[in-house]
């Protein structure tokens, strides 16, 4: 296990600054995901942690000890890539044994016949074989040890790559998009296996992905990068429910968060001519963005029993995606068709029953689910929004 501390890491390639001062603490035994769009600097940061790349400025500490000058091998850090990087001419067992052979047997001892020349050669080989078998057992690939990589499925190759990293007993496990070459079903399976591996090993994991679902489902905490800067670091539920900015709100969650331009007026927020009776402490006339997650909105069925939501919007339906147990409804405000809305609607216990969405319908907007962002995209912290203050 290990604690990783990054302080003010910067990196440029030519004139382009790719990392613009990254400071991050990864706790002992934590699973932290680095997420962000393609090109934001995730892999570069991971390579800097591993020692394959050098930062221009900043400091990297593992368990409080600076490792900036240490070679990759000396950091005891394992790195798994998306393309597995297995040796095609070697068996699974040889691939997995490679880091131990390289680390424990000197060059001449790796040659054929070396066991006659090298003291402890046989016992070292035996220890390596035993470690490889133990890790292969753990990853359920023991029956594949004699095969070559070409005779394995994508998921099996990925497990071999994980195994090769694990045999060294690293203190820090770094993974760069390890699932991106797998099909959707296998991704879910290997995702679960990696989480299980983390739980059993207790190692510190730093996991790079551009897939927010992976980050949300696997991690203790998520660190979101954008153009070389950290936007927010927190538990998945924090980034989802309490995003610090429009960019975080939009990146996390599928379907994407609804964002509507509003203006502050005396009675609340003016959304395309309709005033939402919300108290804000913003000056009147400010242009802001109101955010709400698609599942927080309610389809208000005409004549249905139950309390009416305090605020409703009338929308026109554009399209409906049937996901089996739920629908994703794409709509737009009736009087401002350029403002789009997405809703997730549960189909209830009988998923076969058709759920009709009228061409024009009302959407209930629950007060507690609303998020307000400034014109600069930064979150205006709650409790700025309050329906009850106005109603009282
Ligand atoms: N060795 C290099 N030389 C020049 N530019 C580089 C080098 N490595 C990365 N870059 C550039 O740095 C930026 C960040 O790259 P990086 O691979 O870290 O992004 P990423 O977030 O991991 O992207 P992806 O999700 O596509 O892998 C990109 O614009 C990339 O082109």
UniProtKB/TrEMBL annotation:
<dbReference type="InterPro" id="IPR015855">
    <property type="entry name" value="ABC_transpr_MalK-like"/>
</dbReference>
<keyword id="KW-0547">Nucleotide-binding</keyword>
<dbReference type="InterPro" id="IPR013611">
    <property type="entry name" value="Transp-assoc_OB_typ2"/>
</dbReference>
<dbReference type="Pfam" id="PF08402">
    <property type="entry name" value="TOBE_2"/>
</dbReference>
<dbReference type="InterPro" id="IPR008995">
    <property type="entry name" value="Mo/tungstate-bd_C_term_dom"/>
</dbReference>
<dbReference type="InterPro" id="IPR017871">
    <property type="entry name" value="ABC_transporter-like_CS"/>
</dbReference>
<protein>
    <submittedName>
        <fullName>Multiple sugar transport system ATP-binding protein</fullName>
    </submittedName>
</protein>
<dbReference type="InterPro" id="IPR003593">
    <property type="entry name" value="AAA+_ATPase"/>
</dbReference>
<keyword id="KW-0067">ATP-binding</keyword>
<feature type="domain" description="ABC transporter">
    <location>
        <begin position="4"/>
        <end position="252"/>
    </location>
</feature>
<dbReference type="GO" id="GO:0005524">
    <property type="term" value="F:ATP binding"/>
</dbReference>
<dbReference type="InterPro" id="IPR047641">
    <property type="entry name" value="ABC_transpr_MalK/UgpC-like"/>
</dbReference>
<keyword id="KW-0813">Transport</keyword>
<dbReference type="InterPro" id="IPR027417">
    <property type="entry name" value="P-loop_NTPase"/>
</dbReference>
<dbReference type="Pfam" id="PF00005">
    <property type="entry name" value="ABC_tran"/>
</dbReference>
<dbReference type="GO" id="GO:0016887">
    <property type="term" value="F:ATP hydrolysis activity"/>
</dbReference>
<dbReference type="GO" id="GO:0055052">
    <property type="term" value="C:ATP-binding cassette (ABC) transporter complex, substrate-binding subunit-containing"/>
</dbReference>
<keyword id="KW-0762">Sugar transport</keyword>
<dbReference type="InterPro" id="IPR012340">
    <property type="entry name" value="NA-bd_OB-fold"/>
</dbReference>
<dbReference type="GO" id="GO:0008643">
    <property type="term" value="P:carbohydrate transport"/>
</dbReference>
<dbReference type="InterPro" id="IPR003439">
    <property type="entry name" value="ABC_transporter-like_ATP-bd"/>
</dbReference>
<dbReference type="GO" id="GO:0140359">
    <property type="term" value="F:ABC-type transporter activity"/>
</dbReference>
<comment type="similarity">
    <text>Belongs to the ABC transporter superfamily.</text>
</comment>
């Amino acid at each position: 296990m290990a604690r990783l501390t990054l302080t003010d890491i910067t990196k440029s390639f030519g004139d382009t600054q790719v990392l613009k001062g990254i400071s991050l603490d990864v706790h002992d035994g934590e699973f932290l995901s680095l997420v962000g769009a393609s090109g934001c600097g995730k892999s570069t940061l991971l390579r800097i942690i591993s020692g394959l790349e050098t930062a221009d400025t900043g400091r990297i500490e593992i368990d409080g000890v600076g490792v900036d000058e240490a070679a990759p091998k000396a950091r005891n850090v394992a790195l798994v890539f998306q393309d597995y990087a297995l040796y095609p001419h070697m068996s699974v067992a040889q691939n997995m044994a490679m880091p131990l052979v390289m680390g424990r047997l000197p060059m001449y001892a790796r040659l054929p016949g070396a066991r006659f020349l090298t003291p402890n050669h046989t016992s070292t080989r035996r220890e390596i074989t035993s470690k490889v078998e133990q890790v292969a057992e753990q990853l359920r690939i023991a029956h594949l040890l004699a095969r070559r990589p070409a005779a394995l499925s994508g998921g099996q190759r990925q497990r071999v790559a994980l195994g090769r990293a694990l045999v060294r007993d690293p203190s820090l496990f770094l993974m760069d998009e390890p699932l991106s070459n797998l099909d959707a079903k296998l991704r879910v399976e290997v995702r679960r296996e990696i989480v299980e591996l983390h739980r059993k090993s207790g190692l510190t994991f730093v996991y790079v992905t551009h897939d927010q679902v992976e980050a949300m489902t696997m991690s203790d905490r998520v660190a979101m990068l954008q153009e070389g800067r950290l936007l927010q670091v927190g538990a998945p539920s924090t980034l989802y429910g309490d995003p610090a900015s429009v960019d975080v709100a939009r990146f996390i969650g599928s379907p994407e968060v609804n964002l509507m331009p509003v203006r502050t007026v005396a009675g609340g927020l003016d959304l395309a001519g309709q005033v939402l009776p919300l108290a804000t402490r913003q000056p009147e006339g400010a242009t802001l963005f109101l955010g709400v997650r698609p599942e927080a909105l309610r389809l208000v069925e005409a004549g249905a029993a139950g309390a009416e939501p305090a605020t409703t919007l009338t929308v026109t339906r554009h399209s409906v995606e049937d996901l089996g147990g739920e629908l994703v409804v794409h709509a737009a405000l009736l009087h401002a068709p350029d403002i789009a809305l997405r809703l997730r609607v549960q189909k209830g216990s009988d998923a076969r029953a058709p759920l009709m969405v009228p061409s024009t319908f009302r959407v209930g907007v629950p007060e507690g689910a609303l998020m307000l962002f400034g014109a600069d995209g930064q979150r205006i912290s709650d409790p700025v929004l309050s329906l009850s203050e106005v109603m009282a």
